[in-house]
């Protein structure tokens, strides 16, 4: 069976206030053409179809267009909701849409009920695990403890229990939206840390022929059977070095997996440049970035006059400007910025406690209080987004 694995469309998202709707429409066009060209048997979309719980009308219209285009192909499509989607809204009309071969899996209770696909070698049971927010689904799934690993383990127990009832030789595919250990994140993904832990081990998905992951925006192989397709477009400059692709997966008669990366259209290259303003305006090595979307980090000791306007004379598509003056290592501002870089909210909060208590960091109970407070804020933000 030939499967096209994609995820993280984020319909409705912009790039530094630049609309990406045209680029997203071009991707849908490319997706449809790829299904035809490569004679794909099933399309998998592993979550974050939309960028937010209540997407703009133009994004909903594009999604509607994508559904019609996929249904017209006569190729089964399985989609799950991600942490950016409103599962309830995305799942509206799922029963009717399923008659057209589009299978929306947004309800955690349905984790153990597969979409049955078939080829010349028999059935492929395709299980959709929507994004599982531990605090909201732990009880429903009967997870023995909290956290992402526990709820995914509970969901996978349902998958394996159903698979055990299937005829011998039935192949299996799982779609999941999660941060799996070994994956490389970017700045584009919304934090899903719970209890100070965001990632889950790949072993959670053991026993499944192929796991199609969503959430991380870089295409990557965790194991031969567990892969991220990544997002089809770059949504932050942290993705400047990404090669945006989809996975073309061939599942053989015994469940063996081979994969090929298929490139997605690139609306405009991304470039990150750094240095003093005058140097950036003169350096011939930067000629190749003049047609790119540019993020410029200026290291001048003092803010130059009209830096954005001056940069735009050479880089007309500059969209982001940061100021990071060169500072001596002993400069307290430099050391503070260094301490914050690449640290989680939990680590920053614990560092602050240690700072105000003359080096004595939080004990086990205090750390648990900080963790609970940060989790409550994140859940509150999620609830407000869904309620809009």
UniProtKB/TrEMBL annotation:
Domain spans labelled Calcineurin-like phosphoesterase: 1-90
Classification via CDD domains: MPP_Mre11_N (cd00840)
Biological process according to GO: DNA recombination; DNA replication
Alphabetical UniProt keywords: DNA recombination, DNA replication, Endonuclease, Exonuclease, Hydrolase, Nuclease
Domain of life (superkingdom): Bacteria
GO molecular function, one term: endonuclease activity
Subunit composition and interactions: Heterodimer of SbcC and SbcD.
Xref: PANTHER family: COMPONENT OF ATP-DEPENDENT DSDNA EXONUCLEASE, NUCLEASE SBCCD SUBUNIT D
Family per similarity comment: Belongs to the SbcD family.
Known function: SbcCD cleaves DNA hairpin structures. These structures can inhibit DNA replication and are intermediates in certain DNA recombination reactions. The complex acts as a 3'->5' double strand exonuclease that can open hairpins. It also has a 5' single-strand endonuclease activity.
Protein's name according to its UniProt entry: Nuclease SbcCD subunit D
Native organism: Streptomyces eurocidicus
Gene: sbcD
